[in-house]
Amino acid sequence: MTHPTLSLFFQALLIGLLIAAPVGPIGLLTIQRTLDQGRSAGLATGLGAACADAVYGAIGAFGVTQVINWLVAARTGFALGGGAMLLWMAWRTFSQPLAEQAAPLPSRADLLRCFAGTFALTLSNPATILSFVAVFAAMAGGGIQSVSPLPMIAGVLVGSALWWLILSTVVAYGRKRFTAVWRRRINHVSGALLAGFALWQWVGVLRGL
Fold first, then answer.
1. How many folded domains does the chain comprise?
2. Is the separation of the CB atoms in 87 and 22 below 8 Å?
3. Range in 27-36, 114-123, 137-146 with the lowest mean pLDDT
4. Residue 118 belongs to domain spanning
5. What single DSSP character describes residue 22?
6. Is residue 197 one of the residues assigned to a domain?
């Protein structure tokens, strides 16, 4: 890569990392699934979000105006659907029993479900694209508009994926230190917070109507 392209890649990597890092619903799911099923399940969960971030990053980087306008116009439906999905995940997380023995390694189908669920959940939040559009517009204003958008998209994907790799690895490393009591508490707190995120999302929709 040339120097401007490499610089742009690392800027986008940092953006992807910072957008993924705040502990929200995807972070909670990643932590909970890593504790229950191991690092591979947690990482698959996070990578679903990373790929969705890359999709929104691509839309923002290429400046696809019609798609952006459609996503913004449809944000109410996305928010309602995403909130319903969060409530379902909250119930599953809160009520699922603790395993009495070590969980078997997740199958490919299990990993695919973890990936697909968070991919759809992240795409159901069009507010994410506004962050990418705003940041990429500022970067373009800084004189990088002549550079291909591909390094920006790749940087977002790598940065977001790097965060989920770090999170799932750290949680998996301390997995054996969590007793059944603490794991049950984590499940209950995670379920309650996921439900809170869903209700907060719905309140935002009602305020915007």
1. 1
2. no
3. 137-146
4. 3-78+97-178
5. S
6. no
